[in-house]
């Protein structure tokens, strides 16, 4: 965490990816991704829900545990799911403690601005490192009117106030999702802690993507902020098709794959 602040001071951008299992966590860790997020986006990208709203602590905990087991270097951040922290700072702390003790998370993330400063404060003063998340906050998508850019016009000032309140409450970093690049730049320059952008332009201190978007495993129309660095959907589909054909033709298993 302190290291991330030094990177900000030196103006060196860093990458963050989601991870939900041990193979991806190990690969991303070895590829030099310093922060891995076990996102509540597992709702969409592991469990097949249509929003992040239904995913539970009990569903996310084993994924967090798998990721922390797999990494040697990365900081593992566990996303607190909808309903597991909003009720009170006490509820937030109880949930964060589960992610730290049972999931062995190094830090937690929660969505919300100023209104959640008391929750963040309760966690940080109990020794739980917290990452904030402002702008488009998917857990509130029903309130925000869908996938919409946040912080346009006067709402930009609100975003700066939210970010400052989270910093003041002790957050070590803040995610900004779907925010105009100019506003994200202003927030980034207003904070001493690093900002992590997703659809928030090039001037954030760090950038995050959902790994299945980054690697082209998820099909369908990706959000505008996604850049695809591989075509895993194509590669996996080709592999499964080739395996199926081999089995049907009697070409797998060959002698090499058999015991005598
Ligand atoms: N695979 C995946 N990637 C994500 O980035 C992601 C998740 N899942 N699940 C949780 C949230 C939901 N998020 C989303 C989902 C969709 C859009 C989207 O469709 N955006 C469109 C419309 C934007 C607009 O209308 O202004 C886009 O083109 O960016 C954006 C963020 C970000 N998170
Ligand atoms: C996209 C990131 C920031 C997130 O919150 C998630 O993956 O759940
Ligand atoms: Mg999330």
TrEMBL record:
It catalyses: (6R)-5,10-methylene-5,6,7,8-tetrahydrofolate + 3-methyl-2-oxobutanoate + H2O = 2-dehydropantoate + (6S)-5,6,7,8-tetrahydrofolate. Binds 1 Mg(2+) ion per subunit. Pathway: Cofactor biosynthesis; (R)-pantothenate biosynthesis; (R)-pantoate from 3-methyl-2-oxobutanoate: step 1/2. Mg(2+) binds at residues 40, 79, 111. The active site is at 177 (proton acceptor). Signal peptide: none annotated. It comes from the Bacteria. 3-methyl-2-oxobutanoate binds at residues 40-41, 79, 109. It is an enzyme of class 2 (transferase). Its cofactor is Mg(2+). Catalyzes the reversible reaction in which hydroxymethyl group from 5,10-methylenetetrahydrofolate is transferred onto alpha-ketoisovalerate to form ketopantoate. Homodecamer; pentamer of dimers. This is 3-methyl-2-oxobutanoate hydroxymethyltransferase. The gene is panB.
